[in-house]
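Researcher: I'm comparing several assemblies side by side, and this is the next one on my list. It has 459 residues spread over two chains. Same procedure as the others: predict the full complex and return the structure.
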Amino acid sequence: MSRKKDLYWHKTAELCLAHNFKPAQVAKVIKDIFPLSNVNGRHIGAYKRRLITEEVLLPEGHNRGMMTSNEMIEFCRSEVLDEDMFVYQCSVGSHKRSLKCFEYKLTSEEQDELEKVERWLNHMKKK
Amino acid sequence: MTDRSIEDLFDRDIDDATISTLESGERDYDSEDSPSIVEEEPVVHIPTVISKIKGSVDIPEEFKFADSTTFYSMLRNIFRGKSVLVTGPSGCGKSSLGKILAEITNKPFYAFNFGDTMNPSAKLLGDTKYDSSTGTWFKPSRFVSALQDKRGAFIMLDEVTRDRTGDLANILMPVLDGQRYLALDESEDADTVKIDDGAFFFATANIGREYLGASHDLDRAWKDRFTGGIYELEYLPADKETELLKIRSPKITQRDAEHITDFASRVRALYKAEELNTSVSTRMCLTTAELVVDGMDMLEALKMVCLPFYPIQGGDDTERVRVIQAIQAMGE
C-alpha cells in the first residue's frame, strides 16, 4: 500500500508545473481556485520534487508554451475535478476552529460560567 | 578450483560438442517446465477519492470515532450521492454525526425527526389548507423544499424506526432509489417532485431489542436502498469516550471521566449479556460529566442520570438493583 499523500490541489499544481510555472506562481493559481487553501510555495516546491523523483516531471522543465497567470487560472479552473472541489470543501469544513453544532459548549460566553451562576444567584436573592 | 585451472578453462578451444551441450542447456531453460522470468509491472501511484479525503480532511476534535474508516468512507458516500444509514443504540452519537458531516461538507442541513410525528405523510408531503377567499390549497412540506434545494441539501431522516405506520418507508422508496422523485399523492396524474442531483440522505435508526422488539432488524427492502452505506455504530471504546468527556466538559478531571466511562462499560457488559434491557449511552455519560463539573457528587450524578431508565420493581434481582450495585461498586 502506498504511503504517498494525495491532496485536492495536486492535479492543479501538476498542470501548472508542467507549464514551467514557478512554485510561488503555482501557489497564486491555487489560491485563486481554492481561496481558503493554506497551500504556499514551499508545499508546491516539495510536491515538485516528488513529481521529479517519480519521473512525472523533468527537472529542467518541458518545452510547453508559457501561459500567463490569468490564462493558467482559467485553464486549471476548467480542469478541476468534482472530487477535488468536494475534498477542498471538506478540508475547509474540518479545519473550522469549532463546529456550529457544538457551539453551545465552545463559545467564549460559556468560559465564565461561575460568574454567570453568581449573577443568577444574586438575582434570585434580590427577589 | 585453482587460478591456473580457471585460466585453462577460458583459454581452451571450445569444440562443437560442447557448443551443442550449451545450446541444449539454453533450450532446457526456456522449456515449459522451467520457471520463466515474469517482468513485474511498475507500481504506479493513482490518487483515489478516499486517498484524497484522507490526505486533506481531518477528523473533527469534537467528535471521536472508534476508527477513521467510518468517517472517511461516509464522506466518500456523500460525494458519490450514496445514501447513508447509521444504526446503533440510542445516544451513541448518530444524530451528532449527521450534523458534523453536514457542516464539514458545507451542505444546507435539514433534519426530520420521525420520533415526533403521528402522520409521516403530512411531514414528508405537505398538508391541505383552507382559505376563505381562495379555497382549498396544498401547502408543500419543508421536506419538499429540501429535496428541491439547488445547493444540494443534506437531509437527515432521524429515528426512522420510530414510525409505526409503515407510511414513511413506502413514501421514501422512490426517493431513495434510482428513481429519485417524490409523488405528492397516489393518483396517476399526481404531481411529482424531482429531487435535486446534489441532495443527500442520511438516516438514523435505533437497532436493538428495546427498540424494534423481537425482530431486532430493519426491513430488507429499506436496507437495500442504503447498500454500501450502512454503518453499525457501537458505543465508543472507553479511552475515546473519556477523551470525548474531557473535550465536551473541559473542567472534568481525568479520574472522574475515567470513572464515568468505567461505569458505562460495566453496564454495557451486563446489557450485552442480556441481564439488562437497556444500556448506558454516551449522552448519559456526557450529562453525568456536566453534573459533576457543576458540583454534584459522582455517585449521586450517576444515580440521577441512569436510574430512571431502569424500572422500579420489587425484589433483589431487578435491573435497577443491578445498576445501583454497579454505581456503588464505583465508590468502592
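Model: For your comparison table: The CA atoms of residues 54 and 69 of chain B lie 9 Å apart.
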